[in-house]
What we know:
Blueprint: H1 2-22, E1 23-28, E2 31-36, E3 42-44, H2 49-54, E4 59-62, H3 64-67, E5 80-81, H4 87-93, E6 97-101, H5 107-113, E7 116-119, H6 126-136, H7 140-165, E8 171-177, E9 180-184, H8 192-198, H9 205-211, E10 216-219, H10 224-227, E11 231-236, H11 248-251, H12 254-257, E12 261-265, H13 274-289
Parallel strand pairs: 3-4, 3-6, 4-5, 6-7, 8-11, 11-12
Antiparallel strand pairs: 1-2, 8-9, 9-10
Amino acid sequence: xxxxxxxxxxxxxxxxxxxxxETITYESENGPVEVPANPKRVAVLSTFAGNLMAxxxxxxxxxxxxxxxxxxxxxxxxxxxxxxxxxxxxxxxxPDLIIGLSNIKNVDKLKEIAPTVTFxxxxxxxxxxxxxxxxxxxxxxxxxxxxxxxKARANSIGEDIKAKIxxxxxxxxxxxxxxxxxxxxxxxxxxxxxxxxQMGLKMPEKVKEMALTDGYYAISPEVLPEYAGDYxxxxxxxxxxxxxxxxxxxxxxxxxxxDRVYEVDAQTFYxxxxxTLDYQLDFFKKSxxxxx
Length: 292
């Protein structure tokens, strides 16, 4: 009888240990959250799909912006588009983890479907964000390895670019979106983190003055020459009006006249997740250095 009780006690202990091994506690910005140790069905409601793809995490639902990214087409082909309001669809998908930005709606209802973790955009820098997502899905080591490798590659390419264009050359990042033109600071996607933070390329004074604090600044095409650097990265929405490119004002910008405007599909360039950062870095290498 004593042997039997001891056996039951050990069995219960092993069951508890197995259960504990199935979950981890992630220290989120809103407090500790118990999440799967190895999530198998993750739903992403905002911007982080590329981080999870880089960590080989299986996604069952992603936000509309990720779904429309041409670079994600293949990996997300069979993944559903979801939002913070598509509760029924999320129930059907049976995610074991939901991730989003801190401004999403229905968080309490989402928590009833699966453990839900949110991040405040820019609360931490873009590389730390990838490490935090790595911690959340129990792949911190892989995330840190990617960050170190990315920094080394970006630094090396940045040095080559500065050697070619000059230490004092300026770069402006612009984007057309819904009848408006924007210039960007150093932390609002569109490759700005790479150009300004990692590579240390210079930003025109006017851009620094108007866009650095908020991350972006809306301008009219007529004043673009005041913000244009020696080089321009044009994150281009082709379905939005681009007629300003046909004006004399635009054509007379030195970067335009010197063939130093590098255009890229805006839908591939919006964010600063790990997958997109790799694409942006490759784009800058090809644009600035060609086949060097």
